[in-house]
């Protein structure tokens, strides 16, 4: 049992030596204190979800890295001449005030000037993404498709939520239909299909280009 006298940061470091994903009950304020203690870019991913600090080894799989690059390039090209849309990577923390959550999607598209969550004179996260992309694995699917999805849907600014399986051809697209209470979902299961996100087309073959399936 982890000693209660250890700081939350030290508990995370110690447990990550033997655990792939660490969950520690904490308040949102305690989460931000841990983020500050570790600095801007720790060697692992830190999120706050469902009343827990979630720490996970930051070493992504080859498939994840390839797919983030593939999708980022497709979106970057599609939105290149769209003045307000900017594609950003996984270092962007999204703060969802309505459910006290702070998460880091694999890709973020911002559609307006960033609105920041402010704490102690700092701006540790943004609150107004236009689109988020999550590339999930077996170990992250429960959170990604559960509590994270529920919280993403509460954001007024967000228009599209994209989930991509890194181990088999499967993409799920949630598109807002008027307000935060109404969404429609379209699923894609074949590399021969083309994913539609508004006016943007993402061929599944391009999303999974150079991805190796077991």
Description:
- With 214 residues, the chain is an alpha+beta fold.
- It has 2 domains: 8-57; 62-207, Alpha-Beta Complex (tt1808, chain A).
- The chain is 24% helix and 34% strand.
- It has a 6-stranded mixed beta sheet with strand order 4-7-10-11-12-13. It has a 3-stranded antiparallel beta sheet with strand order 1-3-2, with helices on one face. Strands 5-6 form a two-stranded antiparallel ribbon.
- The chain is globular.
- The chain starts with 7 loop residues before the first helix and ends in a 7-residue tail after the last helix.
- 27% of the residues are buried.
Compile the SSE list and pairings:
Elements lengths: L7 H8 L5 E5 L2 H11 L5 E6 L2 E6 L4 H17 L7 E3 L5 E3 L4 E3 L3 E4 L5 E4 L2 E5 L2 E8 L4 H5 L1 H6 L7 E6 L5 E6 L6 E6 L5 E4 L2 E4 H4 L7
Parallel strand pairs: 10-11
Antiparallel strand pairs: 1-3, 2-3, 4-7, 5-6, 7-10, 8-9, 11-12, 12-13, 14-15
